[in-house]
Amino acid sequence: MQLTRSGPIKIAVIHGPNLNMLGIRDPDIYGKDNFDSVNQKIEAHAKSLGLEITIQQSNSEGAIIDFVQEAMSWADAIVINPGAYTHYSYAIRDAIGDSRLPTIEVHLTNVHAREEFRRNSVISPVSTGQIVGFGTNSYLLALTAAKRLVEESHR
After folding, report:
1. Considering the entire predicted model, what is its pTM?
2. What is the span of the domain harbouring residue 70?
3. 5 labelled binding-site residue
4. What is its EC number (predicted)?
5. Is 107 one of the annotated active-site residues of the chain?
6. In total, how many domains does the chain have?
7. Annotation-wise, does 81 bind a ligand?
8. Residue tagged active-site, from 15, 30, 45, 85
9. Potential cystine with 102: which of 50, 54, 68, 128 (Cβ 3.0-4.6 Å)?
10. Residue 123 maps to which CATH number?
11. In a domain, 57, yes or no
């Protein structure tokens, strides 16, 4: 049986803790683009791909879990940068796993080439894939990947 879909693919983009400080926090590591300009790039790329997106950010673990759970009712996929929660939030991991949505984990820096503690992700095992090290472009690559995952699942 072939699945069909109508309307644009919908993606939840979720920024974790401290990402609202982009452009201020360690610009030599995280880049000089501020949070608003990063979101503008994400929105422009989503529009060019014909995607409908919602962007949310929180420094609170519970709010991020709420965003993931809310996405279950409307989104086709999730793009998430869990920030430092990547390394220890089993609660966010469980929410992503429970969502059963294709999920792309994103990091601006190559976490595998940084401090040892940043190399461990409890989110990766429940993610469809991980994109790291391309700065702001990590989000754009993730949107493209998420779109393809959804399209392929409906062929």
Report:
1. 0.92
2. 10-153
3. no
4. 4.2.1.10
5. yes
6. 1
7. yes
8. 30
9. 128
10. 3.40.50.9100
11. yes
